Amino acid sequence: MKKMLAFLISILCVISMVGCGSNARGNTSNDKPYSGAPKIVLNGQDYFANEAVIVSELPDGYSYAGELTDQEKEFAYINGAKYYLPMGTESIDDFYVYQECGTPVSEQEIDNTKRQWAYVKWSLGQ
């Protein structure tokens, strides 16, 4: 009787270990946090900030389109949600977001310690 009880306990331990192992395997690549470049996902397309295009006034040809949802800007890590689309286009290659950002100090350099609110161009990823 003791041998039978020890055998059943052994089987239960093995079964419970297998169960724990399957739960531990639940950490798939979908569980990992996003670690790529900041992006906005709009209409299923990925857009990336073009830090070379930070302007204090919205360029001609763009109009207010609404506010980005938290889901659309989940991987952008930005303060700001108002966005502006090009007028009269069927496909969206780029748009501007009015957001907090760094200040350009040259054509290739942004000073992120000098924060400002400006229009940042976001472009379709390749």
Automatic annotation (TrEMBL):
Keywords: Signal. Residues 1-24 form the signal peptide. This is Uncharacterized protein. It comes from Agathobacter rectalis. The lineage of its organism: Bacteria, Bacillati, Bacillota, Clostridia, Lachnospirales.
